Amino acid sequence: MILLTGATGKTGMVAAAKIAAAGKKARVVTRDAARATKLAEMGHEIAVGDAADGAFMKEAMRGIKRAFLLLANTQNQGDMEAQFTDIAKAAGVRHIVKISSIEAHAGIGAKVPEMHATSEAYIKASGVAWTMVKPNFYMQTLLAAAKGIQARGELTMPIGKTRISMIDCRDSGEIVAKTLLESGHEGQSYKLTGPEAVSFDDVAKRMTAILGKEVKYVDPPLPAYRENLLKALPDPWRVDSVCEIFAMTAKGPEIISSITDTVQKLLGRAPGGLDKFIGDYKAAFA
Known about the structure:
two-stranded parallel sheet, 9 strands, Rossmann fold, 14% strand
């Protein structure tokens, strides 16, 4: 049986749907049963509890052969992922698939990708077979700017002129399902990107054309962006971690703009592009 964490989110929900479509059943770990209604309708088993609770996770891991690890970015995420790995190993789980990030390596200069790098190393050292799914900047991150686009026609994020090979998380979710349903993905680190590298000025121009309204890119000073973000997200650790990622991205590390053929190889098709994403989410922006 497959165990899923993070299945109520955008990536995990796609993975769960693909698993159900393949006629397989998963056990879904969630803290909120109400958010898992769609997952239950797919035929998945819902286990309600906190992934930080070791006793709960030991019970949830019973009978599991493959486990998907996707936890929210929090201050104790690294400890939780290490505990998850230890419990999985003790329970006889054969394969762990982890969502990481394309820029995850020590010294990158941002807490979250460095935590992912540490967690990757811990899983690899555990002796359990593993697959790392390492997406670039998600197109769905643009939804955080939707209100400003609606109200003022402004796409506001402190990214500068960096070009990013953004990935649609729906492609990431489909690849997660594939790695959980098939053998042959063990020991692989899959770096996922979209089909092109674009700047946020490019994104604003694409939105203008597709939404039928003018959208301009606004690159605010990072301190001002942080203050505004704190009003919407009153958690200093999370706000700082988001701002660190934006600051790192704005420096334009080569990995951010690189384009891989991983989606094409694994899914037999090109990754979804920016125009398709904007069109599919048009209602959210317009």
